[in-house]
Amino acid sequence: MLEVKEVTKRFGGLTALNNVHFSVRENSLSALIGPNGAGKTTLLNIITGMDAPDRGAVFLSGSDISNMSSLRRSRQGISRTFQHPELFGNMTSLENIMVGRYSKTKSGFISSGLRLPFAVREEEETRRRSKEILEYINLGHRANDISSNLPIGEQRTLEIGRALATGPRFLLLDEPAAGLNIKETHSLGRVLQRIRSEMNITIILVEHDMDLVMQISDRITVLNFGEVLAEGPPSEIQKDPAVIAAYLGVDDE
Q: What's the rounded Cα separation, in Å, for the pair 81 and 103?
């Protein structure tokens, strides 16, 4: 459903990605792992259109989307979160979700300002659907709380909810478990599994928490120094000598 073909990306003299091939099946939960600086976030940026590859292409359902803007890719169903929560800190949790939902509305500035009947109905539907999403991600009790006052775990979950509000086919998550404790990480894992199985959303997960990755991923791709080091199911990846060496180093003797 999504395929990155022979992508290379350089920043000055640094090669962030070198001839990377990466593909994702529909309704799967795929993980991208690797040491810091391996190129994981750069690959997400290329998939979402925030960065352009120097060489190679990105395909969605067989169509080349390499020249599409981030906005057009979003309208094609690609949504993401970031390493650091990018919430509207002075808004409530519900309002943050509603911001994501507005990408699906048709009312303009004038119709909304004049409170025309169809604009009012659309606003009510946006609020209703946003409340449903908050309940789905177990944050219904936080609807009226200012988002900047939430614990970091709930902020990360809220950002996932806002991404869901855009109605994505693909959900790209950049280190969603960073800073979470064990209980919060387990809760996050359950939410992601529900999103995949119940909402039929394909998930790409960049994550350093190996317990989480091994428990919920269907397939794992390992990046190291901008190149694909290994790929396969968790049972194979966790036993791969090259992967172990990349993470733990090797003894020269």
A: 16
Q: What is the pLDDT of residue 9?
A: 97
| Residue 198 and residue 27 in contact, taking contact as beta carbons nearer than 8 Å | no
- Cβ neighbors of 234 (< 8 A, separation 6 or more) are 213, 214, 217, 220
Give the model confidence (pLDDT) of 145-186 as tens digits. Answer: 999 999 988 999 999 999 999 999 999 999 999 888 999 899
Domain count across the chain:
2
Q: Give the domain extent around 229.
A: 1-77+168-253
Say how far apart CA 99 and CA 205 lie, in whole Å: 23
How far CA 20 is from CA of 38, 80, 171, 224, 227, in Å, comes to: 12, 20, 20, 11, 6
Order of strands across the sheet that contains 2-11: 14-24, 2-11, 55-60, 63-64
> CA 18, CA 11: separation in Å to the nearest integer?
12
Task: Compute the distance between CA of residue 31 and CA of residue 242 in angstroms, rounded to an integer.
Answer: 17
Distances (CA, A) of 251 to 229, 243, 245, 246: 19, 14, 9, 12
My answer on whether 107 and 227 are in the same domain is: no
pTM for the whole thing?
0.86
Same domain membership, residue 200 and residue 253: yes
For residue 82, tell me if it sits in a domain: no
